[in-house]
Amino acid sequence: MQYLEGTNPPQRQAITTTEGPLLVLAGAGTGKTRVLISRIAHILTQNLAELDEVLAVTFTNKAAREMQERLEAELESSVKGMWMGTFHSLSGRILREHAQLVGLDKDFDIVDPDGQASVMRDILLAHGIDEKQYTPKQMVGLLSAWKDNSWLPEEVPAEEAMKLGGHGHSVYRSYQERLKQLNACDFGDMMLLTLKIFKENPEILQQYQQQFKYILVDEYQDTNGVQYLWLRLLAMGHKNICVVGDDDQSIYGWRGAQVGNILAFEEHFEGAQTIRLEQNYRCTGNILHAANAVISHNEQRHAKELWTDSGQGVPVEVHQRWDDVDEVRGLMVTVINHHLKMGGSLKDIAVLVRSASQTRVLEAELRKAKIPHRLVKILAFHDRKEVKDAIAYLKLVTRPRDDLSFERVINLPKRGIGDSTLKQLKQISQTRNMPVFDAAVVAVNENLVNTKAKKALYEFTQLVNGWRSDIPNGSYDQLMEMILDESGYVDMLYEDKAKEGEEKMKERIDNVKELLRELTDVTQENLLDYFENLALDSDTIDLLGIPQDEVSIMTVHASKGLEFPMVFLPGFEDGLFPHQRSIDDELGTGVEEERRLAYVAMTRAKKKLIISHTSSRKLYGNWISCEPSRFFLELPEKGVRYYKEGRGSEINYIKEGHNPTGRTELKRKGPRKMGEAAPQTQLSDAQVDALNKGPMIGVSADGMSTGTKVMHEKLGTGRILGVEGFPPNRKFIVDFDEHGEKKMLESMANLQKI
DNA sequence: ACATTTCTTTCTACC
DNA sequence: AAAGAAATGT
After folding, report:
1. Residues whose CB falls within 7 A of nucleic chain C?
2. Facing residues of A224 across strands?
3. Structure confidence by residue, pLDDT tens digits, A375-398
4. Which one of A12, A558, A584, A607 has the fewest beta carbons within 10 angstroms of its own beta carbon?
5. From CA A623, how far away is CA A680, in angstroms rounded?
6. B10 nearest neighbour residue (CA to C1')
């Protein structure tokens, strides 16, 4: 049995224990993917199940693809027919099959967050809710959280329904109604509506329960409420559910993930067995030791300690740099060039950032230093404006009910259809219960809009009808090309050159061309799948040519499951990592999740881990001073070296400026008190201006100074303890009567003087 | 309705 | 700093 070769005893056990519920607690780099693949190979080669009787759930499409490839290599045969994919893609498959049961057509569309916000904007308007007080995004966020918890409109608990001014409940219903009208659903619905079908139609559920003899789930620590219930129902048939995960790597709490699912698996599934994989095959001893030390500060976790027998390796490095530019130029570029000189390769290297905003400086400086690099998954190809515009045209032509796409392209390029005309069209569409496109035809025929708009609408509808009659037998690239040409969209891109600059224009044109290339594979048969993938698969970035030798730049979240010989972790500063939003989190679980995130980040490194923090960095265009991340205080004494360099200096990499006293300098006496203002290291022009105009720190013209009593919408009354920075980016430190000390940005907090 | 200017806001993380 | 919204002028 080939698939057992080279496995350790617990791995072997996890592969061959096929019957009954099984929890595999698999730490970072313990060979969990290997186990999953071998387990499926075992099930199939032992003839325990047919291909379509195996359900394998992964967290990303990329993971699904990788698993499929490796499995096929292992079995030397195709595994087509197996149910392998993400929760959303698998659930979507079931939902399409039974869409009528929840009022959707089989070819329903999946709206992305932009689309959600757009729908919500109309709903808020119709409900007479002030969209400044409750933004569409906020409202969508609330609904998504409810859906992640598996609450249908009638199931939302009373106290939840009180949130955001108590509007949520009625808004939820209208929002769902509207989506139904559009023949569309959002991400949350893909799980929730399928669950609804299961609950209301036992015979359908039973059919799937019988079909799926073996269920496997990867990254179980990141499942949310609705996903848990979905799995639970499906697993009720044969009860052979194997979940693999690591509570220390749960980093999607903001998307509703409940670590509790993995912590309580044994209670949720009766008779469950647990197997632990604790031998790490990825990192050096020093890296593992450092990561273990950090994560051990979390309260909510299964006790475990990863180990390795592969030697200590070189120390983990911690660098203090002057600012974000110096962090790249002085540190990374130096190290990377040295790595190249020693014969190393760029694809060994990854830079993992906490927030996408860090990539701007990173990219600029690496470009200056002529170091090839690639942003991975930061802005997905299909999220680019010009690509979304083109897709909207294609959707409008092929999907008659797609009002969202109509809205997007009706005045792109400018056709003289403004807000007021659009509003009229929407009105007609609602009262006559027809798509906005049809309303436009009606408006033309019945003279319901002014002459100018009428002419423009007539021409537009003629164009679209023309394209509709040209829907091809072959691939869609030619239709798309015709649309882009005849609509004037491409001309518009060229004309934008003056405004946007030539480089930007070229990039846009290239992206549209790339889209055309992609569409050569799209036909009437797979158009629906194509649209579904657009919504569900954001990994598709590697279509732009062969993988080059270049440094990978990505967010820590995007790095989960990957590994690199050398990893840089810039921006380890309180406020950025851990992020301020998590520090402010009232439940206190935020920092624990950040710590898990740090753990994930550190354990991506196989041989060399370089963490850095800066003294100052730009935020919203203003310099702020930064404190070292609190996570440094949790690093072990051994196996970590500290480096501190001044402004613009380059470290002498070979000689190593090992600074044993660095640690004491780094070590704070304890967390900085909230009221204790961070020292301002450098003033921006705006700040100097602000000073010259009058208001001084703490004695501002608006009377918001230390001692002022203030009122906050949610946190109630309190007193200002201190003020940092300058308008309009001041931060107030407020001692709230009910909630204690909080630090907040002026523009966010909306504090009222009382 | 659109172009231009001015002012706000934004920077967690993503299927 | 850059993108987006709002205000203002034509």
Report:
1. A 132, 618, 620-621
2. A257
3. 887 777 888 888 889 999 999 999
4. A584
5. 8
6. A620
Among candidate residues A229, A233, A178, the one with its CA nearest the CA of residue A211 = A233
Catalogue the active-site residues of A.
32-33, 218-219, 249, 604
What pTM was estimated for this model as a whole?
0.83
How far from the centroid of its chain's Cα atoms is residue A747's Cα?
Answer: 25
Q: Exposed, middle or buried by CB within 10 Å (0-12, 13-18, 19+), for A271?
A: exposed
| Three-class secondary structure of residue A271 per DSSP | coil
As a whole number of angstroms, the distance between CA A88 and CA A253 comes to 17
pLDDT band at A450 (very low <50, low <70, confident <90, very high): confident
DSSP state of A307: B
Rounded-to-integer distance, Cα A552 and Cα A352, Å = 8
Query: In the structure, what pLDDT confidence band is assigned to residue A67 with cuts at 50, 70 and 90?
Result: very high
Q: Interior CA angle at A494 toward A492 and A500, to 5°?
A: 95
Report the DSSP pairing between strands A640-644 and A622-625: unpaired
- Report if CB A498 to strand B is under 7 Å: no
Give all strands of the β-sheet with A83-86 in edge-to-edge order: A83-86, A54-58, A214-217, A241-245, A22-26, A273-277
State the Cα–Cα distance between residues A634 and A290, nearest whole angstrom. Answer: 8
* Alpha-carbon torsion, ordered A432, A438, A444, A450, to 10 deg: 70
d(CA A368, CA A476): 40
DSSP string, A646-709: -TT----TTT----TTHHHHH--SSSPPTTSPPPP----HHHHHHHHHSPBTTB-TTS--TT-E
Rg (CA), chain A: 28
Integer distance in angstroms from CA A670 to C1' B10?
A: 31
A422 nearest nucleotide via C1' and CA: B1
Structural tokens at position A80: 């087509």
Which positions of chain B lie under 7 Å from any protein Cβ?
1-3, 8-15
